[in-house]
Amino acid sequence: MPNTNAAPQLSVQPTRSILTAEAATMRSRPTAQTMASRWHQAATGSRRSRAPSPPARIMALGASLVRGEQSTDLTGFRRTMRDELVALGVPVNMVGSQRFGDMLDNDLEAYGGNRVSQIHEHATHIVPQLQPNMFIIQVGTNNVLQDLDVDKAGEHIEDFINYLLDTSPLSTVPKIMDVNKQYRDLVSKFENKAVLLAEMHPSEGYPDRPEIGDIGPDGSHPTNYGYELMGHIFAESIKEADGKGYLRWPDVNGLEYDGEAGRADATVSTTELPPMTTSLPSSSATSTIPAKR
């Protein structure tokens, strides 16, 4: 599916919203590889008596941080998250109307500089067609950076999550980092629905969260290691969702369970397209929005 080379308004992740006073507390931290191995062993051990998990048809929604801006391979957290799920035997298909980053299964739905309400609008043009059973949403940063609708961010994200759950009823939404207080309060409203908080904030007492040193020189986007940490945390949230029975078999609509099926090019970078208002085209060698069939 198409992806986006550009987006003049690339801002993401306000550093203070993710990372607060941890700057002075630099503790000994495990490597990303150690974390992945430790989590993988725990997850596989807990799965031995369970039926196989449903395939994960994941739509990553957000702005330039979801795109992986400033990461070396432009995949951000997506490669780490996907690799850890695949290592557990979970078929993964990343879906969206764009492709971005040096990985085969690089579909996403991310628009640099967009606020919550704008990303919600983009989603209305693609979610009904692709019917993900898992949404990763990382939104709200640009409300803060642009100082627009900050006090309404919680209300807007509540509307957004309700839209996603209503439009793709087999879906789960593990979430959220920005405008943190509003979002933490909001998650309790979805207590009986398939919505989880993927907590990235070190101030909440969870280990192995991004710290100030894991933000790159632009002050907004994580370093490669910071993105890896995010990928681990999102994978943990998806594992938690699966353990609670939230991950359900996706709608049968012709999409592959494995997003790498039929893909030959590891990197595809095309111009960001306007929101689609018609059904996805069939896969073809010349299509700029290759549907994974």
UniProtKB/TrEMBL annotation:
InterPro entries reported for this sequence: Ester_Hydrolysis_Enzymes, GDSL, SGNH_hydro_sf
Entries under SUPFAM superfamilies matching the protein: SGNH hydrolase
Residue spans of biased composition, Low complexity class: 269-293
Region (Disordered): 25-54, 258-293
Origin superkingdom: Eukaryota
Gene Ontology molecular function terms on file: phosphatidylcholine lysophospholipase activity
Protein name: Uu.00g075820.m01.CDS01
